Amino acid sequence: MLIWPDCIPCILRMSLEVARLAIEDEEGVRRFTEEILKLRPLKGEDWGVTSPEVIRDVWIILQHISGEADPLKGIKEEQNRRALELLPQVKEQILRSRDPLEEAVKFAIAGNSIDAMIKAREATEGMCEILQGHAVDPVELGRFRERLERARTIVYLGDNCGEIVLDRLLIETIRDRYDLDVIFVTRTLPVLNDATLQDAISVGMEEVAQVAENGIPEPFPGTVLQKASPQVRTLMEGADLIISKGGGNYDSLTEEERLKGKVTFLFQAKCYPYCSLHRLPLGGLIVYNY
Fold first, then answer.
1. pTM of the entire predicted model
2. Count of domains forming the chain
3. Residues 25 and 159 in one domain
């Protein structure tokens, strides 16, 4: 999905929030702001790009001004720690539910809500509010089940730290019900709070799946086949099913025509474009079989 007008203020707001976490002095934040405002897409001069492409360029500027290769490293570790505190409670709720697979899918999508939470209890309550307030499309969920029944190999594209703990539970739930192999793919280079290989290993992902980096040699918060390593490209092209998490992966992979027919996107409707395209209210839980 190429950027919409709505993406410009959204990226600017997110960029400023991240800059205040990563850059210590106000002069540095001003310099960062001046530099990103020179980017053509953020001036409305280039609509032929995806949001992950714009965010990559913003992130490179942030790295340069902050002097840090991974400015949000500490925050990512904290997000994973908080999510791991939730793990036993969420697992119990999934196992007690009427439909454990549906419940695990909903939790995996709602996982982004951990980002802004401080305490494990608050995070649980926040996610439960999302789960109680939004359902997943039963038709799309049914198609996802059909894909799982036919699949033997799944490539699972991760997104944020914290969220990946809920991904781990979804993978566990899937593997308890279907005879298949799962390869969990992370970013290679740090960008935003997206999970890297080490982040995935730190939450025990290797216990439920093979874990691999995407091999993309730039801080890119999405997935593009041409940029991925030959090994990951081969895995994705040969997989029976690709489960894609988050908006960045959605934005970039919906531009990949050759993957049509085997990608299931799981993400939250966090903005007007997603709500409009999928006819959901803000915060809705999206299961979309591409």
1. 0.93
2. 2
3. no
